[in-house]
Amino acid sequence: MYVVRPIQYADLPALEQLASQAPVGTTTLPKDRDTLSSMIAASRQAFQSEVEQPGPERYYFVLEEHDTGTVIGISGLEAAVGMRAPFYSYREQVVVHASSDLHIHNRIPALYLCQDYTGATLVSTLFLDRQHKVPAQRQLMSLIRFLFLAEHRQRFAKTVFSEIRGVTDEQGRSPFWESLGRHFFSMDFSRADQLTSVSNKAFIAELMPQYPVYVPLLSAEAQDVLGVPHDDSLFAYGLLENEGFANQGYIDIFDGGPTIECQARMIRTVAESALYQVVIGDVKDAKNQDASSEEAGEYLVCNTQVNEFRGMRVESHVLPATTAGQPASLMLSAAEAAALQVNNGDRVRAVAQPAFPRIR
Q: What transmembrane ranges does the database entry give (predicted)?
């Protein structure tokens, strides 16, 4: 049984172990104990705070093997980026160069350094132990965050976005960085990657060009990877696409990976989730008695708490409401109810588990 819960101070050794496996380009999971400790402290403060509107809160969740207590993954939500330090992206748009005398009309793509996502919610830090990167666990870790967002909407912005890791080779070399960033930073990609994860990002504005970068001036190799996700990120990218996220012309300033976004209310898990009343019982018996029910199946479910948030995947059975105005009931086993820290009659939020994405 796997349960998602808020990260705790005691999870630091497990977080260090996960960070040691993270490849170059995973800026949100640095190999730095002090930074990881600060991440936990910020998350604990966020979960314990009364929040009426989104601010600089950072929420980190871990995936735990419930029976052993082993932490095998982490994911995060940053409520509103750019509130304490600038958050930069490249916006790609077309510049028109024309000459009526020469009858030439050229439309040239260019990259503009911007802070357009300031105040938006960032979906970040999805990483699982290499031995547990199975689709079901990766999907649970990614989507359970949206159930938390749906239940606590006031804590998050109207726009939600994610920066997908861009293309790098086996040595951690980024074609986009080599063609652009290296000329202004005088360092390799891995060093710049480390700096963005452990220090204030103001140096980006100080060193990056403030004028548009014309895409045709980049190397052919760099142009080929603009807005292209790394192979290892295709599953995560597909999960978010299935949730309604789409590219609106933004890319990461370091590796050129795609930035995708969705309005919070339109995220599939948010829009299709509902509140249910807990009924503790034998799910298999219920299914046998009503095998024709279209609402028997696998669900992602969470309790309605903040600091004691718990989420998991269950095989369940929905029972229709017996009283007008009351929610339908979701049947849980005693073990599942205990893991979610709920009792008979409590409310939970749940959504039918979607299909896994098709990797192109």
A: none
